[in-house]
Structures are given as structure tokens and as C-alpha cells.
Amino acid sequence: MPLYLPSTRDVDQKWYDKFDKSRMIAEVARPVRERIAEDIEDEDEAQKVLNDYLKPVRFTFGVCPRCNGRGGYVDPQIDGNGLSNEDLADADFRSDYFAGAYDVICDTCEGANVVPVTDDESVKNALNDLLQEAEDFEAERAAERRMGC
Ligand SMILES: [Zn+2]
Asked: 105 C-alpha vs ligand 1 centroid, how far in Å?
């Protein structure tokens, strides 16, 4: 039975902790700073990176990857695992669904449609690593479920 894909993918790792729109600077999130420091062998150097990244970095605004700039999406509790043909066979549900009746405000951009994006290579690489790790973990769990664990 074909499944409709969820309208959104969970991207909950943000590279920033907070950002200042008027000055266009953001603070790098702790998990990202830790990931950057992990790759540095020299302890003093690693510590410096951890502290340095507490300093704000410049950013621009880019389309929110979670809601694709829509500012919201269908509540993941509704279609987070996809929808079956049976779900969509319910005419009331289907028209409400496509009319946006189950839409919620985007968690990531909080309805702003855009999110801070940085050009900082080490921040970008660290974030990719973290997202990859989360994806691998999910894939492993899904494989375990298939094995009946
Ligand atoms: Zn968004």
C-alpha cells in the first residue's frame, strides 16, 4: 500500500542558540561548538574554540529547511508517519487536510519562514556531522524495529 510522505522532516538541531536580528549576529549552539572542539587534539586549542564560539558570528537569512519557507506544516502527529490510502479515503479528513486544517506553526522558524544561515565552514561541517549522526541513529533504530527488537 503506497504511503504519502510526511510533509516535514524533523530537523531539530539548530546551529545557533539565539540570534540578534538588528545586529545580524548569532551565538553558536553548545552541541555544535562541542562537535567542533572534538576534532581538535590540543586541549587548550579546543577550549579556546569552545569559548570563542560563544562570541557571536555573522549570519544571513535563508529559507527555513523544515517548513520550506511556508512558516508552518501539517501537525506531525497527523502525518508524521505518512498517510495511508485509507486515511485519505475519508473525504472530510482529506479536504480538511489539504485545506490546512491540521497545520501548525513551524517549530524551527516559529512562523518567520526564514532561519539564520551561516557561512562559517566549521559550524556548517559540525552541524552536518550532528545531523548525520542523528540520521544514522534513526536508521539503526528503524532496522532494529524491523528485526523485532
Ligand atoms: Zn519554518
From this structure: 8
- Which of 5, 6, 102 lies closest to 94 in space, CA to CA? 102
For residue range 101-147, what is the model confidence (pLDDT) as tens digits? Answer: 999 999 889 999 999 999 899 899 998 888 888 888 888 888 888 88
Quote the ligand 1 centre to 113 CA distance (angstroms): 5
Local structure of residue 142 (DSSP, 8 states)? H
Give the Å distance between the CA of 89 and the centre of ligand 1: 29
Alpha carbon of 72 to ligand 1 centroid (Å): 6
pTM above 0.85? no
Spell out a b/e string for 71-82, using b for 16 or more CB atoms within 10 Å of the CB, else e: bbbbebebbeee
Q: Which three cell numbers stand for residue 133?
A: 549522526
